[in-house]
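Escalation from tier 1.

The customer reports that the assembly of two entities below gives different structure tokens on two consecutive runs. Tier 1 could not reproduce it. I'm attaching the input and our single run for tier 2 to review.
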Amino acid sequence: MGLDAVEASYFKRSSLWKFTVVLLAVILFVVIIVSLNVGYAQIPFEHILLILGKRVPGISSVIDSSVVPSVEEMIIMQIRLPRIFAGALVGAALAAAGVMYQGIFKNPMADSYVLGVSAGASVGASFAIVFGAGLTLVGMGAVQVAAFTGAILTVFLVYSISRVGPKVPVTTLLLSGIAVSIFLSAIVTILTVISGNKLHGIVFWLAGGFFNVEWVDVWAVVPFILLGILASYFFARDLNLLALGEETAQHLGVNTERVKQVLLVLGSLVTAAAVSISGLIGFVGLMIPHITRLLIGPDHRVLLPASTIIGAIFLVICDAVARVLTGAMELPVGVITALAGGPFFVYLLRKKKASYGM
Amino acid sequence: MVLLNIDGIECRYGSVKVLENITFFVKDGDFIGILGPNGSGKTTLIRSISRVLKPYRGSILLDGKDVYVLKGVDVAKQVAVVPQESSIGFSFTALDIVLMGRNPHLRRFQMESQRDFEIAKKAMVLTNTWHLAERPVNELSGGERQRVIIARALAQEPRILLLDEPMTHLDIVNQLEIMDLIKDLCLKQRMIVLAVFHDLNMAARYCTSALLLKKGRVFSAGTVEEVLTAENIREVFAVDALVRKNPVTNSLYVIPMSPQKPVHNRQCSVHLICGAGTGAALMRVLLDDGYNVTAGVLNVLDTDFETAELLKVPVVTEAPFSPITPKAHKDNLTMISKARVVIVTSVPFGHGNLKNLEAAVEAVKNGIPTYVIENTPIERRDFTGGKAKLLMDELKENGAIILKDQVELLSILKVPAEQMLETRALATSIPGHVKNGGVEESREKDMD
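Tier 1 run:
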């Protein structure tokens, strides 16, 4: 009888989940190594391995990297690697936040930008580009700091608008997110109109990408993104229960208001941090959670880590494509994700219309 | 022992009071039905007890501890809720959903153990959903999904089960199976059940006691027999109802009647000669259309007598199962003399009620228009060895009008025949009716 198999598969579930996550991590590692080889300058793959090997404790002493020109080492270590790291972090952050928001809102169209993070960051970044580009703050660019601040302030505003006493009804939250986003988009438009010769900068930032990402930018957001994502795992089972509706989740012992508040803060934090280094990159936060759900099911205990890693893999690949597609003149990665994501999403919707699962 | 103590709670949505001064307590093994019309606060009471809507005043004590002071998880270990509607996001399987019932018993990063799985499986077998285990719950039918939700509540291993109209999506077999199961848990495991019911008969069948709410207050509380009286039902639901004992289940049953329309001029008086349920539907329709209706002679306990009582139709009565005495006959003639029309239904005639036919003959002789409904020929309902047939012939000779069924009568009286439909269902649902071949047949034909 098939149901004995159900029983067996349920007990293998936990090890299957672990295996999935480890496998995805291995894939991410391979993708990172391979994408180091992608770029305008041709660098032999052995050289890349030598450059990396030199930095691995234990085997560094046996590696002779004297054949590698120092310019190649500079390109790999100072240009490509920080940029790939940034891509992985941003992809992970957007996908994880997407899972959190879709879980909280029980809405398939929710993504990491649903609370106006993108609009807030755009206003911040545009302001900085128009009025104060070139300034730096504790080693970071003014644009990055302004984007982060704009994003956080916006989420705070949306949250305050929607709050009714101690509660935050999700429908109100969604709607005020939309309202605030529309308002802020208008401000961005005003800024682009008055930006003069800085228009190019704004447009490029809005399209999203990883030009000129340096280690310092990466280190600035690592704590927010990693800690934010890790903390969200504490609420994985609560997210499952929220799928039953808030009241039922409460009946099953979930402190729904607290879970919602904590996850909204975590999601906004990781998204704001991500957006501050990459600009607006669409579709990752919407699509990756859906794809992952189709691949491994809706249980957030595996969905959260798996989406995180798949998001990282996806964005690293997209960035690699962006770097080589048009030769020396590279495309913003946001264009690649949207080009890949839009049609793929339509394909998924058509194929899985009935059982799309929301 | 007292387990759950609802102590003078008042609940509000914003500034609107929804519940006021609700006080009751619940002991092990109680099965309490929460009854009342829409908007009387039933669901609010469930929400309040289940720690979702904090009362504005008063408290809800579980083993003497305020549920709003206890942690949600600790309450969830003891109290499970089956809501009215469940929409489930994402394509979780039925087994996933039932396993979620184990949540209050698990620590934060703890995975479900073999034991949790066994408990979930048992709950699914009991609710007949185990075969659905791997199906995405969104693809199940409403009834299947509701049974999965009930399994989830059972997997919580609660001491108290709160059900908010749990039967909405279930067909009749599933309703009975699920309620039997819950009743069984109530009896064997001393589980407490508080259930909101719309169907008063379901409540009467399963509950040990009932709480009748009206506009947010307790209108009546006590045993089902104490609460479900015709009077209470009329007061709270504003409908008349027949309340009887079901001979099969020995529980009460309630037959609601649709609210009576106000009638402006009751001038024309109609007297019905009926019995054994043949006149019940007519009484109702004629009253609704503004006729003054009288009836007689009817034996006390006759179905038509009960209907007449309920509709407050004046009746000349006779003792149960007794032949019509000269006194009753005389009263009947007096009543007939005041009528403008006499109607004789397709009632079977025996020696006991033959006098009624004589009364009809008297009426027609006195010039009162008399209609005889004859959808069963008199030969087949004459249990007097031909005496009834003779009287019937005499009726016809004196000018009584023979009609083939009630519809024809209604068209003559200009009563819309559709009104029969509603009352027809009512008449057929009145149980306790003697299933005498002739009677049954005549009724069936009446109805058609």
